[in-house]
Amino acid sequence: MRRTLAAAMLLCVPLSSLCGCSSRSHRPPLIEILVPSQDNPFFHAEAEAAAARARELGFRARIDVHDDDAYQQDNMVDMAIASNAAALILDNAGADASIAAVRRAEKAGLACFLIDRAINVGGIARGQILADNDAGARLVAAEFARRLHGSAPYAELLGRESDTNAQVRTHGFHAVLDTYPGLHLVAAQSANWSQSEAFQKTETILQAHPEIRGIIAGNDTMALGAVAAVRGAGRKDIIVTGFDGSPDALAAVRSGELAATVMQPAVALARTAVDEASRFLKTRSTGQPEQQNIACELVTRANVDDFSGFQRIRPE
């Protein structure tokens, strides 16, 4: 009797274990999507585009945020590793501060694909898919200079100083603007990508330098803060430009309050990263170089209706 019961138990336990394993093995692999914020329309667009593409390709997708906090990002990466995620799509929290997290993820077998922001070390991530911020900055700077007829005092609102993209954009601006002897930079202040801070900084700049005729901003959020301050001061003679192509910025371009912006291709960045992650998980190769740049496009009142949701919706 005991021998029969023991045999029955031995048969039962492996069968239940196999059923459990079989159930888990049929779950699609997980792609973790980690972005700075879901409140910012750009980061929201890239997160949703990545998740949609992952599901189209048969993966599960999970979106988390790190709030540009490297410590929180570390915790989220550890959570992705613990969840046995197959790939990580990451808009990271700092070019230097994120290196250790990416290295740890890759060592744990989590394939990392960076979007929007690079890290300062190559050979760790499987891909770094970036908007061509330098070329985009040069495009909008050329339009800014054209609208100012190449001669005017102007101010610049810079992004967060620790953000590589802020540095790349201001370098691209000045690669163009500094070639115009008649353009004079009279004020340059960081507004940390913030609309409220840009509003306050612009008010101060307008009081100190009423002679300015242009404000070039490192992103749309700051540009819209500047537009509000310019409007509040009753000034209609100041050209303002942005960068990103956010829905609010497109509306401001359409109304004429914002002279121009640059469409940063959030959707294309995200979809490309997921496509390459899928290819890597199947073949162990992306077939692409680690760093790839996707072109930005200048948006003015003449072509603003060609864009929506951080992508071109009408062919050129």
Question: Can you walk through the features of this model?
Answer:
By secondary structure, the chain is α/β, with parallel strands linked by helices. The protein folds into two domains: 25-131 and 266-294, 3-Layer(aba) Sandwich (Rossmann fold), CATH 3.40.50.2300; 133-263, Rossmann fold (3-Layer(aba) Sandwich), CATH 3.40.50. Helix content is 46%, strand content 20%. The chain has helices spanning 2-25, 41-56, 70-82, 99-107, 133-147, 164-177, 195-208, 220-232, 247-255, 266-283, and strands spanning 30-35, 60-65, 87-90, 111-115, 127-131, 151-158, 182-190, 214-217, 239-241, 261-263, 291-294, 297-299, 307-308, 311-312. Helix 2 links the parallel strand 1 (30-35) and strand 2 (60-65). Helix 2 (41-56) packs parallel to helix 10 (266-283) and helix 5 packs across helix 6. Mean pLDDT is 92; it is low at 1-23.
